[in-house]
């Protein structure tokens, strides 16, 4: 076997490994849990735990960890060794079913939005058997959900699993109505494309802003940026290529099907894409992808930046969330061949369109983060308006439906829904609109607003839930009717008419779209803080409650955590700016000004009456920018102090956005102007040109 297939999945306790290592009946029972969500008995857990431990120990694991995803958006792990003293000074390696199923980490330091009072600091982790365990760095990683003593979700996995169940339940109802009596489960699937930057580690380490905030807080544009379009899909440098090889191998060992790699638009920017899998596993895998990027980069003396906007004026990074629904037999967003299949496809397609139209602010919310505010709705990025791109053929069909083609459908013998022959859509790669935030790409939707650092859990919780909700309404109506075809036609036409406005095939980056969207009545929620505010609208709380995804308390807690994260992130950035300006930029500037002033004096002392006006002008200019920067620095400090005093977290987050962020910009401007005047030898840290081109 060649190397890739040999190493693929070697560190994963996969279904194949379980089948090989578990007694037949245990495997069968476990499979029922995996496939149908049936409860796992302690007896089965005991057998699985023992087999898992033996397998892990063979892979040289000494520890195990309940790996979970707290609301920081990162992952958390605490490692316990398998050792069990035998009483005679020796140890054996032990791992029980109970240890597999449940953990009780001291969880008082994770964000909980007030869900867990400090007197009840315990949190519980529960094994998620639907995502395979794996060995990494000598530890057995067990994917787990994390919740409070009273069962509230404290993590990003629990609600995702709940949303998967919700959409499965409603989609299965629809399939039943279409005559499918076998399918028991519909799975939401995701392939998240990950963008990132790679910089030289030594240069990275000289920038406190990158170290503390993951993005540059100062920096003038270099003479060359991305204007030549010479990086996108360009030849990959050897250093980067050797990084990518090792990165791929690490992922393959973890069973992550890393498929595509290429250079992205910005200099030093790259992308990887895996082959899609269930939203649950894809989310876990994407966390591992981000973690592996950073670790492997470090081994190659590189620093990986996952931030949404590491450089002002240069393309930022996102995460394209390719999403679909499927059964074990078919992709439900794949257009079919027969009219019957196409009617079913159209139902799921229109349900998704309606869900996006109806709940656009929730999707916007799912992409809200301080980093993403530089991409969405900012000066140099696409607007934060949610619209759907369908491509020419589908738009045409949707147009026909809108114009009443469905009501003219009288032919009850076949399910053509009035659209005579739905064409079999070729997966036309050219038929793409890269500017659309939500694009149908042949057999899936691609949600492109997600930020590169974000967990894809949030966007998929929203997608699954909103689509479940529309499917539910459709199923409710269809289950009551005698006339399936007629009612279905009516529903589809109604949903299309109600949500036609959200379909937009034009250039989403064109400024005229903003006015057009406003005329259409589409929401344009420009900032994350405003998006976060919408989370607690009663209609949204009811939606999440209706599908068992979030209880009201869980929504409010999450909203608070998002506000908090927003405020804290900007606070760190502001403090970092203050430090860099005070201790690096201003002293360097002063030194340079003095050095020029000294030379002016020296020249004058040698050449009586020499014209030193040009040199003096430099001193004057530097001096005036110094004064401007000092003033802006004081203003930033006083603004911070004022904002610190705001008690209500939503108000505080808004003040960070609208006041602190402004003050930060005001400090950045004179500093960036100084960078363009002060001599290179005096400038305290590497410039954009160094960072982007010296890799
Ligand atoms: P691109 O969008 O770059 O042209 P592809 O269309 O091949 O690339 O796929 C992009 C991503 O979409 C990949 O991760 C792929 O696995 C994923 N994808 C393909 N089909 C589905 C599906 N049914 N559900 C979810 N993701 C999918
Ligand atoms: Mg894509």
Automatic annotation (TrEMBL):
GO molecular function annotation: glutamine synthetase activity
GO biological processes: glutamine biosynthetic process
GS catalytic domain location: 156-585
Matching InterPro entries: Gln-synt_C (IPR040577), Gln_synt_N (IPR008147), Gln_synth/guanido_kin_cat_dom (IPR014746), Gln_synth_cat_dom (IPR008146), Gln_synth_gly_rich_site (IPR027303), GS_Type-3 (IPR052725), GSIII_N (IPR022147)
Annotated GS beta-grasp domain residues: 62-151
One Pfam assignment: Gln-synt_C
Family designation: Belongs to the glutamine synthetase family.
PANTHER family, A to Z: GLUTAMINE SYNTHETASE, TYPE-3 GLUTAMINE SYNTHETASE
Name the UniProt record assigns to this protein: Glutamine synthetase
């Amino acid at each position: 076997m060649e190397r890739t297939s040999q190493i693929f999945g070697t560190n994963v306790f996969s279904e194949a490994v379980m089948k090989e290592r578990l007694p037949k009946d245990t495997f069968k029972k476990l499979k029922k849990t995996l496939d149908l969500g049936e409860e796992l008995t302690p007896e089965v857990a005991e057998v699985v735990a023992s087999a898992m431990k033996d397998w892990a120990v063979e892979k040289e694991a000494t520890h195990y960890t309940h790996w979970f995803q707290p609301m920081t958006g990162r992952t958390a792990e605490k490692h316990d060794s398998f050792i069990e003293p035998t009483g005679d000074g020796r140890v054996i390696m032990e791992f029980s079913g109970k240890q597999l199923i449940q953990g009780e980490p001291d969880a008082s330091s994770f964000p909980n939005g007030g869900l867990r009072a400090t007197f009840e600091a315990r949190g519980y982790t529960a094994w998620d058997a639907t995502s395979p365990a794996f060995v990494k760095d000598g530890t057995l990683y067990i994917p787990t959900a994390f919740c409070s003593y009273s069962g509230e979700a404290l993590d990003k996995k629990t609600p995702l699993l709940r949303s998967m169940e919700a959409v499965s339940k409603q989609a299965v109802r629809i399939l039943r109505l279409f005559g499918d009596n076998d399918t028991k489960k519909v799975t939401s699937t995701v392939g998240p494309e990950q963008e990132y930057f790679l910089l030289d580690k030594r240069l990275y380490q000289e920038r406190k802003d990158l170290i503390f905030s993951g993005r540059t807080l100062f920096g003038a544009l270099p003479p060359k940026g991305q204007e030549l379009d010479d990086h996108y899909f360009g030849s990959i440098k050897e250093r980067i290529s050797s990084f990518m090889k090792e990165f791929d191998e690490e992922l393959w060992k973890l069973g992550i099907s890393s498929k595509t790699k290429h250079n992205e638009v910005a200099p030093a920017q790259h992308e990887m894409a895996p082959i899609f899998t269930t939203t649950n596993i894809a989310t876990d895998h994407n966390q591992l992808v981000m973690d592996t990027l950073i670790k492997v980069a470090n081994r190659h003396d590189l620093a990986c930046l996952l931030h949404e906007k590491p450089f002002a004026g240069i393309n930022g990074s996102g995460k394209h969330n390719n999403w679909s629904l499927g059964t074990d037999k078919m992709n439900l967003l794949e257009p079919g061949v027969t009219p019957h299949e196409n009617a079913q496809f159209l139902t799921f397609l229109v349900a998704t369109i309606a869900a996006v139209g109806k709940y656009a602010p929730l999707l916007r919310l799912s992409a809200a983060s301080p980093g993403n505010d530089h991409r969405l709705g900012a000066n140099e990025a696409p607007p934060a308006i949610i619209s759907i791109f369908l491509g020419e053929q589908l738009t045409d069909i949707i147009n026909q439906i809108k114009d009443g083609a469905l009501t003219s459908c009288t032919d009850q013998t076949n399910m053509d829904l009035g659209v005579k022959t739905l064409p079999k859509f070729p997966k036309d790669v050219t038929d793409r609109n890269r500017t659309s935030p939500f694009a149908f790409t042949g057999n899936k939707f691609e949600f492109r607003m997600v930020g590169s650092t974000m967990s894809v859990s949030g966007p998929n919780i929203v997608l699954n839930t909103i689509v479940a909700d529309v499917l539910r309404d459709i199923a409710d109506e269809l289950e009551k009717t005698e006339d399936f075809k007629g009612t279905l036609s009516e529903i589809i036409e109604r949903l299309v008419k109600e949500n036609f406005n959200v379909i937009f095939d034009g250039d989403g980056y064109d400024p005229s779209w903003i006015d057009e969207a406003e005329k259409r009545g589409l929401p344009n929620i420009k900032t994350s803080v405003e998006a976060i505010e919408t989370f607690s609208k009663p209609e949204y709380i009811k939606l999440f409650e209706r599908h068992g995804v979030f209880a009201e308390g869980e929504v409010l807690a999450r909203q608070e955590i998002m506000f908090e994260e927003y405020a804290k992130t900007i606070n760190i950035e502001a403090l970092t700016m203050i430090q860099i300006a005070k201790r690096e930029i201003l002293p360097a500037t002063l030194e340079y000004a003095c050095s020029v002033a000294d030379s002016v004096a020296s020249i004058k002392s040698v050449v009586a009456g020499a014209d030193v006006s040009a040199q003096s002008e430099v001193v004057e200019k530097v001096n005036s920018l110094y004064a401007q920067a000092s003033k802006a620095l004081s203003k930033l400090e006083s603004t911070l102090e004022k904002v610190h005093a705001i008690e209500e977290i939503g108000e505080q987050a808004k003040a960070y956005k609208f006041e602190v962020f402004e003050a930060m910009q005001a400090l950045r401007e004179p500093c960036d102007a100084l960078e363009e005047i002060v001599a290179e030898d005096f400038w305290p840290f590497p410039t954009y040109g160094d960072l982007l081109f010296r890799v």
